[in-house]
Amino acid sequence: MNDRLCQSCSAKKRHGSLGLHDSKLWKSPCKKCGEMRKYTHIKSWKQRRDLCISCSQIKNDEHYNREYQKYRGKVWSETNRQDLDSLENIEKRGKSGIDGAYQIDHIISIKEGFDKGIEPEIIGNIDNLQMLPWLENRKKG
Predict the structure, then answer these.
(1) What Å distances lie between residue 89 and 86, 109, 110, 141, CA to CA?
(2) Distance between CA atoms of residues 86 and 5, nearest Å
(3) Among positive and negative, which fits the CA dihedral 50, 55, 61, 62?
(4) pLDDT single digits (tens) 73-131
(5) Are the beta carbons of 100 and 94 closer than 8 angstroms?
(6) Would you list the domain boundaries of the chain?
(7) For residue 100, which of 132, 140, 68 has the smallest C-alpha distance?
(8) What does pTM read for this prediction?
(9) What's the mean pLDDT when you consider all of the chain?
């Protein structure tokens, strides 16, 4: 570990071999939002280095991801049990990148349903489904 003068607070702090304010880290954009990453002293070492502080605080632990994937699977199982032929523009259903293709959209998103503890049967219900052009659906997230 090296003692270095911190560029943020001008105090002498232990920063480790790379240093908290190493130019490579300091100038790297966040892979999620594109903002330049900014690091604080101890907190930064607990965060993902490829994301900014704001994005790295989003729940991303292994348990959360595993539970979310289970929930997502239940929602899609319920979605596929619905009478999808009753949705407007279902005949235009197609893959991303194809001109004129539509995709199934969950009005209340799967992610929002998971975060708010909404039952998968509600999120996958026909009343929460609509068809959107694929690009619009991707932009929605």
Answers:
(1) 9, 19, 21, 20
(2) 65
(3) negative
(4) 999 999 999 999 999 999 999 998 899 999 999 999 999 999 899 999 999 999 999 99
(5) yes
(6) 3-56, 62-140
(7) 132
(8) 0.56
(9) 75
